[in-house]
């Protein structure tokens, strides 16, 4: 029987094919596609010293840092004569016409792969997005951006709390845009990955390539923008990217957890640019929407028998996050199926007890600010502004009081959420509202109403 070692250059090529297969399985398809798939075998004539090529110094350095030892071990396992694996930059190794979208989690940022179109998760389409008054503007705006022709506005800025559908809309927009424009290119990336790639490009002295790659696509989508707050160099680069897309009339979509002017640690000129397009917020889902979301999910699972009282339990108790609501439903169904149990109200409480209790306790400062703004007919931005008129200062103090009472945030953290105010300002606000609740029935009534609303009583 002939061995790989006896086959010369053919042996090296076969070994490389075997190594690629192992790496695809061990690294996972997404990581493999982003970093390892573009690698090519440069020279198969030397079975002692393997040479691999990648299309950029940035990718070359990343693979060296993360996979040099692994590549050597993989080659030696099938070709014992291998003594070294060199990783080089070969600009012509991979065509670079199209850039892909990437949806890696922020804790493991990675560069978008080259040579492919984006592959968005098909579950997150416009058809599967449940619409009501809380998200209709954002939904219609996303559909408008996806339509062929010149965009009606750019950037589109989506903002809401966690798990309310921003990323779903971005994925749906990307899918629809690329389906309508077969030759178009797009990139989706979390802001932390934008920062990671920019810093790596600086280190590798490849900032020109980084800029060209991002600014060369037809649609750029940046998620979780709040995470680059305070990162001055990254914001400077992002500012120029925004300007480039606006001046060229291309599509730019940005998502964050708050309005542009409320972003912490952002330069005013960047916040102004972000707010110059269409700003669309997604409000926390109302009970009717929560029920509709559960009904839509259950339509896709006709074999699941879900009593109405269980649906009402989930819809009434998990109020702030669509993602958490869907997660609770999935968990309940999975546990019931694995244990062979019928889904009842008692079983739901037993299975989801921690989730139901934590959902009641977890109230955010952003949610408090929205509730107070709506109650007093103000803009949420008024609460973080420097304005001192009583009509604004008193609701601001009430919001600080509620933040201290209903959240676990420290006084300095609360102060930062209200326009970077000092913790002593928060202390004064809390004491003042405590005093007023004793002697001012109107203030006490407003606080009681807000507490009932926020606690879901």
CATH architecture of the largest domain: 3-Layer(aba) Sandwich
Task: Figure out the total of helices.
Answer: 19
Spatial separation of the terminal alpha carbons: 77 Å
Strand content: 5-15%
For the report, how would you describe the main beta sheet? 5 strands, parallel
Structure description:
The protein is of the alpha/beta class and 457 residues long. It has four domains: 4-89, 2-Layer Sandwich (GMP Synthetase, Chain A, domain 3), CATH 3.30.300.180; 126-281, 3-Layer(aba) Sandwich (Rossmann fold); 287-361, Helicase, Ruva Protein, domain 3, CATH 1.10.8; 365-455, Chromosomal Replication Initiator Protein Dnaa, Chain: A, CATH 1.10.1750. The protein is 55% helix and 9% strand. The protein has a five-stranded parallel beta sheet, with helices on both faces. α3 (57-78) links the parallel β2 and β3 (84-89). α10 packs across α11 (308-317), α11 packs parallel to α13 and α16 crosses α18 (423-439). It is globular. The protein starts with 8 loop residues before the first helix and ends with a helix. Mean pLDDT is 83; it is low at 1-7 and 92-116.
